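Need a sequence for this fold. Nothing fancy.
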């Protein structure tokens, strides 16, 4: 068995924003992202009537809606809010979120991975904020 205790270690945070598109849309509607029943629905020509791009946690919990659910498979429930995607808005929120990260880590230590995920190398800065990562 190999002894990993001698291997170098780093502190890296992986941030994944929960149901990002649906959360942004919920905030825009003054709704709680964890309690709203909302889906972001693309109705582009190639979606064959509509495709869910994102669903809120509550929409997932109540109706089992996933990010590939077709419009025809959505429940007919008046509580369900359906909104179109707004990529420029999501990019704006992504930039604002990454700006918050800059309060805790150097620019070169922040690595956006996707529209809703970032890696932050906290190896050199975590000690400024407490006794444990």
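Here you go.
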């Amino acid at each position: 068995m190999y002894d990993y205790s001698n291997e170098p270690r780093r502190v890296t945070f992986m941030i994944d924003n929960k149901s990002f598109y649906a959360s942004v849309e919920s905030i825009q509607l003054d709704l709680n992202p964890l309690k709203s029943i909302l889906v972001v629905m693309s109705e582009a020509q190639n979606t064959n009537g509509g495709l869910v791009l994102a669903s809120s946690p509550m929409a997932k919990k109540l109706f089992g809606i996933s990010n590939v659910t077709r419009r025809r498979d959505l429940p007919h429930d008046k509580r369900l809010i359906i909104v179109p995607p707004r990529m420029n808005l999501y990019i704006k929120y992504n930039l604002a979120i990454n700006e918050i990260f800059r309060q805790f880590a150097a620019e070169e230590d922040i690595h956006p991975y996707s529209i809703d995920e970032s890696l932050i190398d906290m190896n050199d800065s975590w000690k400024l904020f407490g006794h444990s990562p």
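For context: The longest strand covers residues 12-16.
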